[in-house]
Q: What sequence folds into this?
């Protein structure tokens, strides 16, 4: 209290004391005592003198004026004005809590000699009004200070601790059988302050100090009252009485016979029983490895026990999970904070995810309230940062973590080691925060390790587990040491805490529980004196079941969470904000793509002609590898950007699973953000890369493919990110995902030259490559670049025809003829020479194809005896017919080839007839056509232009001009670099078809992500390997 | 580019070439090529002829080729051992005068290599037929001796 | 509910996108391009005649061998620069220059200039591919080249067989014009090199006589080109070669035939040709030929 305030207070005391009857000795004593509580001996005298001075100066004035009673009223009016002035002054400097305290003191002052004159009361009223204290609270304070009879103090603001319950109607009551007299406790609800007054003859200790009868004490947070005999009364006991059911919510949690065995066979928990109700804070303690966290997980429903049940208001936690989930809050040991966001933002997005109907003002209000109660308001705009790069302290982090849950106001809160790693000061702060929650009617479970005495005493109950998951104690924390000492036959076994300092040493419990047998030299033998199961048996024998009235009330509907779309937008906003605030991340992601593109494109941009100084796109042999690299870079960038996403959010996700939030909306928001990043990266990469390499007019197509691949990689990355449990594993996995895609693009290794067992060298793209998005992407890029460039566009249709006719003319028909000629010459030599069954099958197959060819309507050359093309009916006559037919066909193709070849030639001649035309033709050619890519697309490096595969002839040259043939409506598979794909009866350009395929892959990957398929698979294998190991052991 | 590309499997894969070589031509050409030694390859012809039918004229093929005065030409042929025919070369100048033949009739002997230093530039005709009109397959090669 | 419906929805969307991208009209256009004999008349030259005429153009190996024997020094400057290939867009240009590059290739090879050989070989292959006669320079053939280069002069083998087969094939395929142009290109380039190389003075006459002998070959070529003289590009070529023919008219050639005699040595039959041919050609004519050929050739190689 500042000097000035104390002065003001003295003045106020003096003003009130001297009214009407003047100051009594008792009143002066009260002031003196009051000062003694606040100050040291010497300053007490100083202020007392000041007080006396105020009294006397006023009295002198008064004595002059009291001669005439008419002036009496005047002085009091004057005093009233003075009071008003002082009160206003106090108002400016003191908090509401402090003002309440002042008011209580004023009442106490006049109560000291019970001189309640109207004047005095009027002055107090004036002060109270200025202090903004309600009439009801004024009344409650005066009742509490003045009345010593429980009947008269029967108002709801008062709690009475006494030996018998005297039919109180309104006030609360705590039974303390051996207490002489009564303890009154007042609660001022508006500021959540408690005052204590004792009327009786026992020695009652408040926080270790004796309480004087009929004096008002502040009953602060965490205080404990110790009567001479009997149970101490804790702050929380008191607070809990007042705050029963503030929201009408009464919740009980009952755990029965919980057993748990770990997958490796060791026993985790043995027959755990507990029962708790709202307003309590319970500790779960035990040496490390005794199953504390496991128990917490079971009670909160994260884990399911092997046997046993947990009931919340009579509802089975595991069977009616959805009903209960919303009222349970879980605060794991790890941080749940998003490092890149500020304290405020962390809470803000949590709030948005929990409440759908709050306006932004309401949210602001709510957050401010929570932040103030967490003591974090002043740091609300600080970034959370990570534990290494400390921006806020460990205690603040922990409180913020708790705050995330508090916003949701769960009724039952599970907290795992809230104090680990915190300083003792921070620890106490955090625990006080939790304790306060119980006062607000929450049920709090805390796993705690080595609590300080202060903290230990805060708990209403403690459950102690011993090695092997035995429950060896469940009850009052202060009594715990007594219990163990008694069993251990130690001296002072009835003293739970240090009598002088009031400390309880929880460590003493464990030193008894785990004490070891010593040998004759006093060395520890490593054997426990008392085995865990023995402790458990002791406990079972002595256990007094404290009956709690189990509540069966309906649980509140927690479905206030926002809708699916709203959730997406909140998740999206949160993620976006956290990414945007990480400058390094943004810069890296923004620059990664263009820098890579620059590096790549710059390196491979070269001038073919050693004597020339100008770059020509057409001559750059690296365009095809560039397309390949585009695909791989897209995959890489897409994977890298997403590979850690879900993994990073894992803890937050675990928490959010309690909120019943939609996984799909989380995923959609994730995916949207990643897609946006990928789209931007694609834009930058393609822009830079294509500009440097002077790839003209294909920007959108390149972007589309790059983006599609990156998007697929995003979702793939999310899959692994959600399935694996360490960042290292994830990054080790990336090569496994990338390299097969590299190998099977068709760019590095020709599909004709890969393992036959995998479908290499066949008519169509090998199946194993069909499942590689990279192959679809590369093909899309290559085909598009070749077919749709400005140069090739002029001729593509004609060249396609030219290619078809050339193939038929040069390779296909001659081969068919060759087979027949062979047969004819063989037959001429030996009578009845049978045709090779494969040959005849081939002939049949190919003739059928020709009969159904699109040119038949044009040339009308049809082989009508194709039904005779089988091993039995085939003979020389048929062979000769077939040969004639093929001759006709050959002629048709030859003529058409020549014709179309001439047409193309004429077209080019026309275009290049004038010098300007020639120049423009040449420049289009140089800028848009790439020779090496063309060679690749036309497969001119193929060892064989045509291949015979059993009974089929397969065209290998000019794949880029060959439209695939599919028999079935849905069959879309084609040879590599096909210009179009057949699908559902139509032809789709390869670019769009392939992009569609990549998106289908993306959607499938999203589905596996949504159903967590990969994670399940990984878990399944893990479980399987554990089982196997166990079997091996046995 | 990989030089030694191993075909995946010759059992299923057949190589086809559109060249109008008859079947006996190409492998034989490769063998025959080895006999050029220190001359420069100019031209080769595949020769495949059926057995002379009764009453028919002797099957034979002719090719024209310019030879230049001052050059010495190395002319030879290789037979496919699977068939009975042994090829005989005869060369005529542009006036259709026989210059040389690879078969010495008196001794019924084949001459494996003819060296022809040309003194008169002009288009010469190379005719090929098989001894006794047998069926045969051969390759004729003309090279320039260095 | 929403979540469950979105997946099929997106799938349907993607499928829709794919189908909407269908293009049906491309085929229609394509069939319009099919050959119609009513509209297109074909030039007719008898196949055998073309074959015979073409075969009178001597193989560039012969010319190169002669030059080498005459002590002529190799000159890279005489060749058509390899980079020129990018300018050959029409069949006319491609065919002529296929002949030119083929000749260059042989010339380089005879002089063992193997460094640039592959470049010219790839040009030959490229032009052949552009003319859609790539089957004569396929992967296998090139493979054989790279494998067997130590034993035999495989570039010569490949070019010679390749060119022979190519022109036979072209003629059979009714693409005699291409075959004729290839031979013309070969001939012009050979003549160009022969007329422009530096020789030892004493050997000049011998080379000049060989140049003079080309009179007959030119006649043959003109006979073939005559059939195509109406076509746009052919017409200047024909006219230019006609001009050249006029210059060649000053060349006088006479033949004296005598029975050859034989001599057998270690199984090798050596023919002694007793015939004589005489070529009379003035230095002035040679110079005129050289200039005209250079002019034509410049036009050919673009």
A:
């Amino acid at each position: 209290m500042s000097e000035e305030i104390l002065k003001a207070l003295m003045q106020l005391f003096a003003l009130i004391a001297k009214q009407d009857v003047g100051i009594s000795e008792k009143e002066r004593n009260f002031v003196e005592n009051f000062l003694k509580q606040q100050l040291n001996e010497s300053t007490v005298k100083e202020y007392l003198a000041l007080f006396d001075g105020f009294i006397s100066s006023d009295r002198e004035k008064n004595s002059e004026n009291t001669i005439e009673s008419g002036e009496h009223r005047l002085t009091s009016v004057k005093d009233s004005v003075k009071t008003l002035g002082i009160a206003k002054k106090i108002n400016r400097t003191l908090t509401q809590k402090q003002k309440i305290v002042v008011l209580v003191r004023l009442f106490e002052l006049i109560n000291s000699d019970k001189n309640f004159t109207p004047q005095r009361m009027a002055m107090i009223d004036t002060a109270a009004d200025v202090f903004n204290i309600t009439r009801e609270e004024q009344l409650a304070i005066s009742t509490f200070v003045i009345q010593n009879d429980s009947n008269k103090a029967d108002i709801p603001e008062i709690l009475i601790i006494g030996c018998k319950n005297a039919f109180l109607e309104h006030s609360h009551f705590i039974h303390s059988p051996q207490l002489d007299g009564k303890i009154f406790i007042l609660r001022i609800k508006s500021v959540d302050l408690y005052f204590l007054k004792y009327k009786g003859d026992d020695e009652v200790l408040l926080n270790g100090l004796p309480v004087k009868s009929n004096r008002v004490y502040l009953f602060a947070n965490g205080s404990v009252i110790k009567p001479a005999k009997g149970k101490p009364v804790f702050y929380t006991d008191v607070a809990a009485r007042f705050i029963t059911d503030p929201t009408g919510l009464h919740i009980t949690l009952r755990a029965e016979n919980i057993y748990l065995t770990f997958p490796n066979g060791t026993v985790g928990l043995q027959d755990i029983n507990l029962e708790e109700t709202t307003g309590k804070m319970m500790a779960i303690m035990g040496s490390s490895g005794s199953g504390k966290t496991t128990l917490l997980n079971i009670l909160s429903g994260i884990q399911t026990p092997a046997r046993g049940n947990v009931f919340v208001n009579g509802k089975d936690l595991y069977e009616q999970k959805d009903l209960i989930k919303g009222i349970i809050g879980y605060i794991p040991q790890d941080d749940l904070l998003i490092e890149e966001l500020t304290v405020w933002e962390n809470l803000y997005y949590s709030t948005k995810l929990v409440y759908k109907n709050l306006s932004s003002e309401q949210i602001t209000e709510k957050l401010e309230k929570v932040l103030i109660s967490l003591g974090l308001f002043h740091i609300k705009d600080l970034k959370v940062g990570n534990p290494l790069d400390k921006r806020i302290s460990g205690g603040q982090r922990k409180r913020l973590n708790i705050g995330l849950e508090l916003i949701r106001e769960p009724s039952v809160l599970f907290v795992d080691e809230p104090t680990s790693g915190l300083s003792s000061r921070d620890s106490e702060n955090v625990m006080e925060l939790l304790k306060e929650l119980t006062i607000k009617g929450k049920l709090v479970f805390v796993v705690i390790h080595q609590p300080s005495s202060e903290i230990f005493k805060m708990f209403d109950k403690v459950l102690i587990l011993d090695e092997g998951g035995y429950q060896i104690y469940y009850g009052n924390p202060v009594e715990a040491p007594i219990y163990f000492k008694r069993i251990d036959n130690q001296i002072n076994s009835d003293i739970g805490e240090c009598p002088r300092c009031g400390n309880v040493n929880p460590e003493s419990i464990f030193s008894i529980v785990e004490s070891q047998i010593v040998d004759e030299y006093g060395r520890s033998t490593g054997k426990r004196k008392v085995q865990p199961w023995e402790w458990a048996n002791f406990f079972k024998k002595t256990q007094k079941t404290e009956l709690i009235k189990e509540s069966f009330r309906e649980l509140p509907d927690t479905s206030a969470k926002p809708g699916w779309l709203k959730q997406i937008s909140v998740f999206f906003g949160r993620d976006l904000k956290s990414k945007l605030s990480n400058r390094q991340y943004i810069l890296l992601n923004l620059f990664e793509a263009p820098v890579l593109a620059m590096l790549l494109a710059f390196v491979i941009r070269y001038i073919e002609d050693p004597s020339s100084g100008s770059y020509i796109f057409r001559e750059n042999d690296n365009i095809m590898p560039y397309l390949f690299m585009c695909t791989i870079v897209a995959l890489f960038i897409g994977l890298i950007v997403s590979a850690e996403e879900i993994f990073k959010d894992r803890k937050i996700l675990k928490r959010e699973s309690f909120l019943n939030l939609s996984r799909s909306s989380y995923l959609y928001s994730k995916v949207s953000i990643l897609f946006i990043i990928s789209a931007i990266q694609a834009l930058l990469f393609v822009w830079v890369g294509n500009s440097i390499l002077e790839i003209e007019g294909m920007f959108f197509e390149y972007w589309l493919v790059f983006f599609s691949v990156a998007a697929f990689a995003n979702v793939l990355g999310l899959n692994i990110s959600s399935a694996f449990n360490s960042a290292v594993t994830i990054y080790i996995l990336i090569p496994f995902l990338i390299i097969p895609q590299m190998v099977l693009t068709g760019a590095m290794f020709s599909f004709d030259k890969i393992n036959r067992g995998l479908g290499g060298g066949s008519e169509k793209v090998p199946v194993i490559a069909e499942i590689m998005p990279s192959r679809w992407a590369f093909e899309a890029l290559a085909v598009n670049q070749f077919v749709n460039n400005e140069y090739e566009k002029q001729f593509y249709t004609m060249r396609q025809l030219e290619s078809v006719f050339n193939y038929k003319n040069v390779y296909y028909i001659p081969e068919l003829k060759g087979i027949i000629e062979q047969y004819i010459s063989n037959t001429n030599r030996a009578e009845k020479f049978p045709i090779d069954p494969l040959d005849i099958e081939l002939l049949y197959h190919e003739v059928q194809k020709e009969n159904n060819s699109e040119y038949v309507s044009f040339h009308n050359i049809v082989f009508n005896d194709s039904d005779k093309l089988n091993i039995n009916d085939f003979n020389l006559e048929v062979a000769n017919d077939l040969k004639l037919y093929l001759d006709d066909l050959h002629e048709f193709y030859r003529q058409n080839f020549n014709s179309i070849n001439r047409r193309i030639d004429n077209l080019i001649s026309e275009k290049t007839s004038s010098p300007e035309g020639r120049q423009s033709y040449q420049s289009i050619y140089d800028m848009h056509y790439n020779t090496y890519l063309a060679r690749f697309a036309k497969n001119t490096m193929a060892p064989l232009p045509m291949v015979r595969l059993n009974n089929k002839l397969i065209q290998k040259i000019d794949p880029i001009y060959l439209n695939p043939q599919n028999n079935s409506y849905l069959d879309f598979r084609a040879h590599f670099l096909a210009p179009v794909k057949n699908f559902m009866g139509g032809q789709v350009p390869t670019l769009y078809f392939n992009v569609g395929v990549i998106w289908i892959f993306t959607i499938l990957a999203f589905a596996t992500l949504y159903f967590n398929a990969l994670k399940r698979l990984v878990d399944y294998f893990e479980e399987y390997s554990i089982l196997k190991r166990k079997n091996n052991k046995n | 580019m990989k030089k030694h590309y191993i075909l995946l499997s010759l059992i299923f894969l057949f190589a086809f070439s559109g060249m109008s070589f008859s079947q006996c031509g190409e492998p034989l050409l490769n063998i025959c090529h080895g006999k050029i030694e220190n001359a420069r390859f100019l031209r080769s012809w595949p020769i495949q002829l059926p057995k002379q039918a009764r009453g028919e004229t002797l099957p034979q093929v002719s090719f024209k080729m310019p030879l230049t005065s001052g050059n010495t030409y190395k002319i030879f042929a290789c037979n496919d051992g699977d068939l009975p025919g042994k090829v005989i070369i005869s060369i005529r100048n542009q006036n259709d005068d026989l210059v040389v033949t690879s078969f010495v009739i008196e001794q019924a002997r084949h001459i494996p290599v003819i060296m022809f230093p040309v003194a008169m530039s002009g288009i010469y005709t190379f005719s090929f037929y098989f001894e006794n009109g047998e069926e045969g397959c051969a390759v004729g090669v003309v090279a320039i001796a260095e | 509910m929403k979540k469950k419906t979105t997946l099929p929805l997106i799938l349907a969307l993607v499928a829709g996108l794919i189908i909407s991208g269908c293009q049906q009209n491309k085929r229609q256009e394509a069939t319009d391009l099919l050959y119609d004999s009513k509209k297109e008349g074909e030039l007719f030259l008898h196949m055998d005649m073309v074959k015979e005429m073409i075969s009178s153009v001597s193989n560039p190996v012969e010319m190169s061998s002669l030059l080498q024997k005459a002590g002529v020094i190799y000159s890279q400057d005489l060749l058509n620069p390899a980079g020129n290939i990018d300018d050959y867009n029409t069949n006319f240009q491609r065919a002529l220059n296929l002949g030119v590059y083929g000749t260059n290739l042989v010339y380089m090879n005879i002089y063992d200039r193997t460094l640039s050989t592959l470049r010219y070989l790839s040009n030959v292959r490229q032009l052949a591919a552009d003319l859609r006669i790539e089957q004569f320079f396929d992967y296998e053939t090139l493979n054989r080249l790279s494998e067997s280069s130590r034993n035999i002069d495989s570039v010569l083998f490949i070019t010679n067989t390749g060119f022979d087969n190519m022109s036979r094939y072209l003629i059979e395929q009714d693409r005699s014009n291409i075959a004729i142009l290839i031979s013309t290109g070969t001939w012009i380039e050979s003549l160009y090199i022969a007329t422009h190389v530096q020789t030892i003075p004493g050997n000049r006459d011998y080379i000049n006589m060989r140049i003079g002998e080309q009179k007959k070959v030119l006649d043959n070529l003109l006979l073939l080109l005559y059939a195509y003289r109406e076509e746009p590009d052919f017409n200047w070529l024909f006219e230019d070669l006609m001009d050249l023919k006029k210059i060649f008219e000053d060349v006088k050639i006479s033949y004296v035939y005598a029975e050859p005699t034989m001599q057998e040595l270690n199984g090798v039959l050596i023919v002694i040709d007793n015939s004589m041919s005489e070529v009379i050609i003035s230095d002035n004519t040679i110079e005129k030929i050289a200039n005209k050929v250079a002019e034509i050739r410049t036009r050919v190689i673009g």
About this structure: The CA atoms of residues 72 and 198 of chain C lie 6 Å apart. The two ends of chain C are 71 Å apart (CA to CA). Residues 20-28 of chain C have pLDDT under 50 and may be disordered. The first strand of chain C starts at residue 252 and ends at 256.
